[in-house]
Each structure stands twice: as structure tokens, then as C-alpha cells.
């Protein structure tokens, strides 16, 4: 599959490299072609890795991973272009974290809305699937990294049932997420985004970002 990854930070690079290991062709998108971080990522990942602008990547990908900082997400998607995103699955792993007052961050969207919902509203013909946003990037692509015994639970939210099943089969299961709960439509992304404050505080308390949440039932 040809996949776009929007974002050149640690999350985007980790996701992009993991997708290449699954056999996909990946184009990393950023504000401008020739981004230094994107070029370094391409050099490290071989012939199936390429880079370009957000628009280049969105046009290339049959599916799009949204791995931008929360405050930049809608701008990045607007730069990608509604026409290039129309009808495509958008795997949204971004979070509405506000670092303006330092650590720990707060949420600039919560309770009655979510970033996932705002993406879906802005791009109504896209199929937004919110997932993976509740763990750090290394655990995203290796569920077993969070535990020596029992892997955590991953959630998916989105309006399109087929899109959610595609994401589960093509990405979550190969990355070790065998316990997946479909929360329902995209409004349920409010819940997973609001897990981030407890995630940040757990990381601070333990000094270990390699953990996940487990629903025991």
C-alpha cells in the first residue's frame, strides 16, 4: 500500500519506519520539500521511503497517517488539500496537547469536542479513524514493548466501520494489538484524547513511557 505520513517528529518517523517494515511504500509530508528531518528519515529507510510537502504526501498515499502536533494538525491537513484526502482513510494519532504553560500540558479541546471530530468535520468525505494516541510512539508500533506479560488494550473511534476494520487488520494487529475495543463513532475520540493527562502524569511518576492501558473484563 502507498501510505502518507504527515509529520516529521518522533511519532511520524517511528510510524513511517514501522510501515516500511510491514512492506508499504511511505512518503513523509512536511511544510516544505527537502525538510532536513524528512531527508534523514528517507536516507535511513531505503527505496520505499520518500518525502515531500503535505500535499505531495497526501496525493501519493492511498491512506494517510496524521502524526502532527495537535495545534498544527488542521493546518497540515488543509495544506494537504481536501481533494487529495477525499475518500481516504485518515488514521489520526495526534492529540490536542497545549504546552503553552509548560509541563504537564493541558488539552485545548476536551469534553464536548475532540480533535478527531474537528478533522472529520473539516474533511467530511474522509474516513477518520482515531487510534494509537494513548501510548508513546515506540509502543504504538510494538504493543509488547509495554509489558513482559500482558499487552494493553487499544481503542478505535470512527464513523466508518470498514475503515476501522482495515486499520485493525493492517496495522494494529501486525503491531501486536490483539485486544482492540471499537468505541463507536468519532465522538468517542473525546474519551481517548482525554486519557492523555493521566498518561503524562503516569509517565512523570514512573519515569517510564513504555506502558499502555489495559481493560480487564
Which overall shape is indicated by the principal axes computed on the Cα atoms? globular
Largest sheet: 8 strands, mixed
Report the portion of residues in β strands: 15-25%
- What is the percent of helical residues? 25-40%
Give the structural class: alpha/beta
Q: Spatial order of the strands in the main sheet? A: 3-2-1-4-5-8-9-10
Order of helices and strands: EHEHEHEHHEEEHEHEHEHH
The tally of helices reads 10
Cα separation of the termini: 35 Å
Low-confidence stretches: none
Tell me, rounded to a whole number, the average pLDDT: 96
Radius of gyration: 16 Å
Compile the SSE list and pairings.
Layout: E1 2-6, H1 10-21, E2 25-30, H2 36-45, E3 49-53, H3 54-60, E4 63-66, H4 73-80, H5 82-85, E5 89-92, E6 97-98, E7 106-107, H6 115-122, E8 127-131, H7 137-140, E9 154-157, H8 161-172, E10 180-184, H9 189-193, H10 196-206
Parallel strand pairs: 1-2, 1-4, 2-3, 4-5, 5-8, 9-10
Antiparallel strand pairs: 6-7, 8-9
Helix pairs in contact: 3-4
